[in-house]
Amino acid sequence: MKVVARTRQEQGTGASRRLRRAGFVPGIVYGSKSEPTPVSIEHNPLFHALRVEAFHSTILDLELDGKTEQVLLRDVQWHPFKPQVLHVDLQRVAGDERLTVKVPLHFVNQEVSPAVKLSSAIIGHVLNEIEVSCLPKDLPSFIEVDLSTLEATQTIHANDLKLPAGVTLVGSAADNPVLVTVTLPVADTTEGEESEEAS
């Protein structure tokens, strides 16, 4: 995915306000042993790109003043009530440096799992993303969680995930948190109680 930006010379609150009025978003590009570079990015293309899940966890091609480099979206600031992007942080990516990134989880085959089909259980997604470490070339846009064999008595933990090659869990994810829970329906005892009272 591609982002087009240009270096901005003016900085400060007033300059950022003027930039936003002109339809641009102030940002910063940092990392990979280079000096941070203030940039501006056209608002509307960025706004629509931010609505795509993969944009948040994929290596992006940043075209800055005609030169292309690889970056990762690190932070986005939104207006409190308007659909407006106020600021973005982009991190430069080096091919030989490991990244620590939160990657979305995609839950699949829930409806065919024994827990749902045989026990009418309710499947709960405790976490929707997980923090991983990897080289840029190994970064997945998402990690799939296959629920096809999930039983009514099971839970799924982070260590149960099938991670792509070169990807490891880090941070709180390395503590093996619960990702999926199974809740069985409560039996309705109302009818039985009523029949006992009638007798």
What does this structure look like?
Helix content is 15%, strand content 41%. By secondary structure, it is mostly beta strands. A six-stranded mixed β-barrel has the order 1-3-2-6-5-4. A hairpin with a 6-residue loop joins strand 5 and strand 6 (85-92). The termini are far apart.
What's this entry about, in short?
With 199 residues, the chain is mainly beta. The chain has 4 helices and 13 strands.
Q: Report the portion of residues in β strands.
A: 35-45%
Any low-confidence stretches, pLDDT <50, length ≥5?
none
| Contiguous helical run count | 4
Tell me the helix content: 10-25%
Q: What is the radius of gyration?
A: 23 Å
Category by helix and strand content:
mainly beta
Strand order of the largest sheet: 1-3-2-6-5-4
Overall geometric form: elongated
Mean pLDDT, rounded to whole units? 89
Can you count the beta strands?
13
| Largest sheet data | 6 strands, mixed, barrel
Q: What is the rounded distance between the termini?
A: 71 Å
Order of helices and strands: EHEEHEEEEHEEEEEEH
